[in-house]
Amino acid sequence: MTLTPAVGVFGGSGLYALLDDVEEIAVETPYGPPSDRLLVGEVSGVRVAFLPRHGRLHQLPPHRIPYRANIWAMRAVGVTRIIGPCAAGSLDRAVPPGTFVVCDQFVDRTDGRDGTFYDGPDVRHISAADPYCPSLRRTLVETGRSQGIDIRDGGTMVVIGGPRFATRAESAWYAAMGWQVINMTGHPEAWLAREFGLCYANVSLITDYDVGVAGLDIAPVSHEAVLKVFGENIARVRDLLFAVIPRIGAAPDDDPCRAAAAALR
Question: CB neighbours of 194 closer than 8 A, spacing ≥ 6?
Fold first, then answer.
């Protein structure tokens, strides 16, 4: 291994490659292989590890993604701060398709996923009150706004199991709860990073209104439609990532991710 990355990027639906000149690294983990080989390169002098969470051929549905192996692999190659872009639906009429949302909360509605590294005999309890890294979130928002992107500072992501989309009743329920974003991969990815003391921030590209948004006559969304809208906006996602990575730097001393890391020692 010739590079020691500090920043990791998970690619979601439609984002299967990021860097051109890369070293491919196969990482063995206690949880089996990650979704793919890590693709390691540089962005403006910053070493970056990229991993498509669904695999390069999108062969892994949300409930089959090896989330623990993916986070373990990122840490194994030296990553300390992670950005997790993803395609997502909107549950709020005020958050239209094309918007970027840097979430500050999540609600887990998945079932059966391996959601912790500490399932015995080593048992630990880490606060989940603020699950995303505040300094990474701030850097993403500031950078996006400097590029003229409609990027929202905060929002709650409800994570469903997939691969099916929500029913109209489920979607209306989530919207009535005041949640803004719906996605299938946000948990346990973000939480596993926190358990390892790694900084993690999500940026959701809104590809569609979900079917339960009140006052809208919405046709059911399809995976093909999601990929189409994400593909139309992929340049904006890449531009944001390439602009934000050189600005990330180290986590501040009061960062909750650092506090989680200290608790693990």
Answer: 126, 128, 131, 200, 256, 257, 260
Q: How far is CA 263 from CA 40, 119, 121, in A?
A: 29, 17, 17
Distance from C-alpha of 32 to C-alpha of 77, rounded to nearest angstrom: 16
DSSP string, 65-109: --HHHHHHHHHHTT--EEEEEEEEEESSTTS-TT-EEE-SEEEEE
Q: Does 163 sit behind a cis peptide bond, omega within 30 degrees of 0 on the bond before it?
A: yes
Decide if 36 is catalytic: no
Which tokens belong to 247?
Answer: 């600005």
Q: Residues in the chain, how many?
A: 265
CATH class of the 7-263 domain in this structure: alpha beta
Query: Which residue among the candidates 208, 217, 253, 254 is catalytic per the annotation?
Result: 208
CA–CA dist 45, 169 (Å, integer) = 48
The answer to whether 255 is a known catalytic residue is no
Least confident span in 7-21, 162-176, 209-223: 7-21
Distance between CA atoms of residues 96 and 78, nearest Å = 37
- What pTM did the predictor assign? 0.93
**pLDDT reading at 111 higher than 70:** yes
- Please state, in angstroms and rounded to a whole number, the distance separating the CA atoms of residues 222 and 164: 10
Domain locations in the chain as residue ranges: 7-263
Of 36, 92, 108, 210, which one is the catalytic site residue?
Answer: 210
